[in-house]
Amino acid sequence: MSGLTFDEATHTYRFDGELVPGVTSVLSPISDFSFVDPDVLDAASAFGTAVHLACELDDLDLLDEETLDDALAPYLAGWRRFCAEYAAEWTQIEARVFHQTLRYAGTLDRYGKLRGKPYVVDIKTSTSLMPSVGPQLAAYKNAIPGVPPLTGRMAVQLKADGTYTAKEYTERGDWSLFCSLLTLRN
Three-state DSSP class for 165? Predict the structure, then answer.
């Protein structure tokens, strides 16, 4: 989106130079990780980032599998299995989005079709899915210009054994919860 920038080092978004909240920061009140050792959290975050990159490069047909760390291989296998079983057709991969009216931004993992129907998909490597996932997907969905109203929302939890769990989010209150948290944050 023209005018939207992202600073990787500070994980901040700007639109036309103005700082705007990111989806992750808006959801922080319901994404408490204070009980996790910071070193463990940093390692998990770095690993999740590496899995995302492997999946992105694979989806773009740019992955050199000879350079892939062995620890990432089962997660990539799970992602490939999911994409094949759901007949995934991606139109947006790791795409920055911005909601013009509510003025928040984020980076959605995937948008496209699963079995012929439109979906916003988030890739997870965590051992459990946090309560923030539904509102996170609702925020991404509502920031995509012209998205069909019946677009589905799904998280794909990749696992170390090469499998995955796909969870669909249908709770209508997810969008309201995100909007409430955005209001509090602002």
Answer: strand
Using DSSP, state whether 109 is helix, strand or coil: strand
- Residues 9-16 have a mean pLDDT of 94
Which residue shows structure tokens 């696992």? 159
- Residue 120 near residue 152 (C-beta atoms within 8 A): yes
Q: What phi and psi values does residue 22 have, to the nearest 5 degrees?
A: -95, 155
Cα–Cα distance measured from residue 185 to residue 33, given in angstroms and rounded to the nearest whole number: 18
Two structure tokens written together for 60: 């773009």
The number of residues making up the chain comes to: 186
3-class SS of residue 33: coil
Instruction: Give the torsion through C-alpha atoms of 53, 56, 58, 62, to 10 deg.
Output: -90
- For residue 84, give Cα distances in angstroms to 15, 33, 71, 115, 129: 36, 33, 21, 10, 22
* Predicted model pTM: 0.94
Q: Most distant CA pair in the chain: distance in Å?
A: 47
The conformation of residue 20, written as its DSSP 8-state character, comes to: E
First-to-last C-alpha distance (Å) of the chain? 22
pLDDT tens column, 85-112: 999 999 999 999 999 999 999 999 999 9
